[in-house]
Amino acid sequence: MTGTDDYLDRHDDALLALTERLIGIDSQIPPFGDERAIIAHLDGVLERDGFTERTIMEPVRGRPSLIARIPGVGGGPTLMFCAHVDTKLVGDAPGLLRTDPFTATIVDDRTPNCPTVSDRPQPVGSSSTCPWR
């Protein structure tokens, strides 16, 4: 077991609660939803967890970006995580889904309606993303 695995195991309840809350925020792409609410929530989570350097930019109305930084001590490599918060459109799908798309319903160790992590790893310098787990 790695240090990361140990951390995830010790914080499993908090991580599940955060995931449930994020799924509950309607962050469909505009004009069907509004990403500002999920960005505001994440900003609060980062503030609570000690991220003192945070900036919200909204170059396109309704499509904000949150940048958070933990200053290092210098001299070492830099690590960057980048991901998107918008979700797929619900549209006419609620009638086709087994559960509410804004409720994290776990069935057989899965959330059947919510692909909670849809990012793909990419090299830093492009549009880099990193899956949560």
List descriptors.
133 residues, alpha+beta, two-stranded antiparallel ribbon, 3 helices, 26% helix, flat, disordered C terminus, M20/M25/M40 family metallo-hydrolase
Give a verbal description of the structure.
The protein is of the alpha+beta class and 133 residues long. It has a domain at 3-71. 26% of the residues lie in helices and 8% in strands. It contains three helices and two strands. The protein has helices at 3-10, 12-24, 36-48; strands at residues 53-57, 65-69. Strands 1-2 form a two-stranded antiparallel ribbon. The chain is flat and about 55 Å long. Residues 124-133 have a biased composition (Polar residues). It comes from Labedella populi.
Please bin the fraction of helical residues.
25-40%
Biggest sheet statistics = 2 strands, antiparallel
**Structural class, please?**
alpha+beta
- Arithmetic mean pLDDT: 76
Rg on CA atoms, Å: 16 Å
Helix-strand pattern: HHHEE
Strand content: 5-15%
Number of helices: 3
Low-pLDDT windows of residues: 120-133
Order of strands, main sheet, comes to 1-2
In whole angstroms, the N-to-C terminal distance is 14 Å
Overall spatial form: flat
The gist of it:
The protein is α+β, with helices and mostly antiparallel strands and 133 residues long. It has helices at residues 3-10, 12-24, 36-48, and strands spanning 53-57, 65-69.
